[in-house]
Amino acid sequence: MVTTRLYRAGKLVKTDFPVSEISDYLTETDATVWADFTSPTADDLASIEEELNLHNLAVEDAVHEHQRPKLDRYDTHLFLAAYAVSLDSVTKELSKVEVKAFVTERAVVTVHPESFDITTVTQRWDSNPDLASNGASFLLWGLLDVIVDGHFNTVQDLDAEIETYEDLLFDGKNHGLEIQRNSFELRKNLVLLRRAVLPMREVVNTLMRRDIELMRHDMAPYFQDVYDHVLRATEWTESLRDLVATILDTNLSIQGNRMNLIMKKVTSWAAIIAVPTAITGFFGQNLRFIGFATAWGTWLSIGLILATSLTLYVSFKRRDWL
């Protein structure tokens, strides 16, 4: 599926025209063209490759998946590869969608699978019509702004998830296995997010360089804003990785302290139980002893058991062993 747009002097004047007409419109000095391909093959991109004189290596990268986020520079165009990410609110799984773009002086071609909602990008463009006069720079900014905002929102969602596990650590209940399992999932999501976010610093920073002639000077503040969001998302992701590691360490410490407390209580009760065992064993010797075969001897043994056990219980309680 192919979607197209034509801007003239910063105004949207035509949509959904054939790809074969793109080269005709690009002969106009005030025209900017956008074409969007959903899950294309190499044959699908052959027409646009000829229309915009795209490098065959860039077209090959656009068709093949699992590219690293990057910005490649060719003689007549730029090739962008990036990942849009989101966190499922129910399953808490992180999803990544590969988005690619060819950028020329007056044209932008985006390539993505069906799972990427391109309408969020077109809405970003339509909500900033005053910037449309900047041509391809404006279109590229809108695409990057949507992708980076997705990174930032995902980091916020993961941060909220981590806060819930922080509360579970100290609610007085045993959530050891739950925290360990969920912390592992969080670390896995953060690793995937880091692979998408970290390289974007280099991508946006390259676009801000003055030797990139395809970028309009008026768009520099907007790309700077995107770069600031990239830095914040990157730093936040790194801090969350450290925080998850701290949660795991804290959970292990709490489990160790709880085990020590249990062992302390078990040992204290064992000591208390050992006293009557010793006394009854003593009075049960097969020989005559004080109070043997008398009623007061029985009460003496019971009294010794109660007095000694109560003394040990009070002593352990004062030491917080029980």
Automatic annotation (TrEMBL):
Q: Which UniProt keywords apply?
A: Cell membrane, Membrane, Transmembrane, Transmembrane helix, Transport
Give the residues annotated as coiled coil: none
Query: What protein does this entry describe?
Result: Magnesium transporter
The organism encoding this protein is: Conyzicola nivalis
What would be one Pfam family of this protein?
CorA
Residues passing through the membrane, by range: 266-284, 296-316
Q: Tell me, in one coarse class, where this protein mainly resides.
A: membrane
Q: What is the lineage of its organism?
A: Bacteria, Bacillati, Actinomycetota, Actinomycetes, Micrococcales
> Which family is annotated?
Belongs to the CorA metal ion transporter (MIT) (TC 1.A.35) family.
Query: Membrane topology type, per the record?
Result: Multi-pass membrane protein
Location(s), subcellular = Cell membrane
